[in-house]
C-alpha cells in the first residue's frame, strides 16, 4: 500500500469515526432529565437488591439483574440466610446511613460521611478476624492474589471464523455501553450542575476498552455503583479518580492479603448507602404535577430498568420522549388572545382574566414552527377557531368578525408546506370577506415568505411588527372609511 493510499485510508477512517461520534452524541441527547430521574431510581433499586446476596449471606444467588428474578432468588434460598451476617450487615448499614444523614444536616461535618465507608471496612474486618474461630457463618472475601493482570495484546487476532461475530458483538456492546455510561454520567452531572459531552465520553469509553483488551480486562463502561460511592464520598473533580486508581494499584501490588477477613456484607452496605440517596421521589412528583408525558418517560425508564434491562428501559423512555416531541410538532398549541385593559399587551384569554376580546378581531397565536407535519392540523384548527368565534359572536350579540390576526412571534421556522398553508388560508378567508394579518414573523420566516412572493398578496396592511400595532392601524383604517 502506497503512502497516498494509507493517508486516504486514515482520512476515511477519521471521517467515519467523526460521523459515528456525532450520530451517537445526537442519539444520547434524547436522554431527557425525566428519563435520567427514572433511570437513576431504577438503577439504584436494582443495585441495592443485588446487595441482598451479601446482606443476607446467600451463597447461591441469581446472576440476573431484573427485579422479579432477584426477589425470587432471595426467597427461594431462605435456608441460606445467616442471622450473623444479617446482624453485622444491617448494623453497619445503620451506621453508614446515620453518618450520611449527619453530613447532610451539617455540611461542616462532611468528613463523617466520607470516612464512614473506610471505617466500616476496617472495623468489620477486625470484628470478623476476632470472631473467626467462633463463627464461620459470615462470608468473607478470602484469598486474593497480588499483582496486575497479565498482558493479553499477544492474544489479539484479526482473522479467523469468529472475526465477523466479534465485530458485530463489539458494535452492539459499544453502543449499549456508551448509552449506559452517558446515562450514568448525566445522572451525576445533573446532581452537580455540570455538562457531559457525549462525543468525549464515547472516545474515553472506547480508549478505555482498547487499553483493557490489552491487559485481560472485561468490557466495561461507567459504573453506577462505584460512581455513587465516589459521589457520596464528596469527590468534586477527576483527581479523585487518579487517587483512587493509585490506591487500587498499591492495593493490588502490596495490600491484598489484608482484605482476607473483610466480610462481603460490608461491601453491600456501602453500595446501598451510596445509591439509596439517588432515588429522587420529589423530582418524580414534580414531573407528575408539571408534565404528564415527562412523568410517563420517567416511569417507563424506571420500570423498564427494574423489570427488563438497563438498555431496553432507556430505549423505551427514549421512544416516549421522541413521541412527546412528535406530538408537540404535529399538534402545536394555538391560543386565542385578548387585550389587557389599559395596556397595549395581548395575552391568552384562558390564562389571563384581565384579557378581553377585541371587537371585530380574532387574534390567534401559534406556538410552534410550521412544518409539513402540522400544516394540515393548523389549517383545520384555525378554521375551527373562526367558527367558534362566529358562534360566540352570535350568542352574545356582538359585532361581526372582520379580521383574523396570526401572532407568529413563536413561529421560529417555516417550510414550503407552511408557506402553502398561509397562502391557502388567506384565499379561504378572503372568500368569506375576512382579512388575514400576520404579526411579528421572525427573520427566517419573513425571509422565506418574501422569497416565495407570498407577502405580495398581503399588501401594506397585511404585515405588522406587533399585534397592538395591527389592531390600532386596521381599526383606524376602518374608521376612516365612509
From TrEMBL:
<keyword id="KW-1133">Transmembrane helix</keyword>
<protein>
    <submittedName>
        <fullName>SULFATE TRANSPORTER</fullName>
    </submittedName>
</protein>
<dbReference type="InterPro" id="IPR001902">
    <property type="entry name" value="SLC26A/SulP_fam"/>
</dbReference>
<dbReference type="InterPro" id="IPR011547">
    <property type="entry name" value="SLC26A/SulP_dom"/>
</dbReference>
<keyword id="KW-0812">Transmembrane</keyword>
<feature type="transmembrane region" description="Helical">
    <location>
        <begin position="242"/>
        <end position="260"/>
    </location>
</feature>
<feature type="transmembrane region" description="Helical">
    <location>
        <begin position="23"/>
        <end position="47"/>
    </location>
</feature>
<dbReference type="GO" id="GO:0055085">
    <property type="term" value="P:transmembrane transport"/>
</dbReference>
<keyword id="KW-0813">Transport</keyword>
<dbReference type="Pfam" id="PF00916">
    <property type="entry name" value="Sulfate_transp"/>
</dbReference>
<feature type="transmembrane region" description="Helical">
    <location>
        <begin position="295"/>
        <end position="323"/>
    </location>
</feature>
<feature type="transmembrane region" description="Helical">
    <location>
        <begin position="109"/>
        <end position="129"/>
    </location>
</feature>
<dbReference type="InterPro" id="IPR002645">
    <property type="entry name" value="STAS_dom"/>
</dbReference>
<feature type="transmembrane region" description="Helical">
    <location>
        <begin position="81"/>
        <end position="97"/>
    </location>
</feature>
<keyword id="KW-0472">Membrane</keyword>
<dbReference type="InterPro" id="IPR036513">
    <property type="entry name" value="STAS_dom_sf"/>
</dbReference>
<dbReference type="GO" id="GO:0016020">
    <property type="term" value="C:membrane"/>
</dbReference>
<feature type="domain" description="STAS">
    <location>
        <begin position="351"/>
        <end position="474"/>
    </location>
</feature>
<feature type="transmembrane region" description="Helical">
    <location>
        <begin position="266"/>
        <end position="283"/>
    </location>
</feature>
<dbReference type="Pfam" id="PF01740">
    <property type="entry name" value="STAS"/>
</dbReference>
<comment type="similarity">
    <text>Belongs to the SLC26A/SulP transporter (TC 2.A.53) family.</text>
</comment>
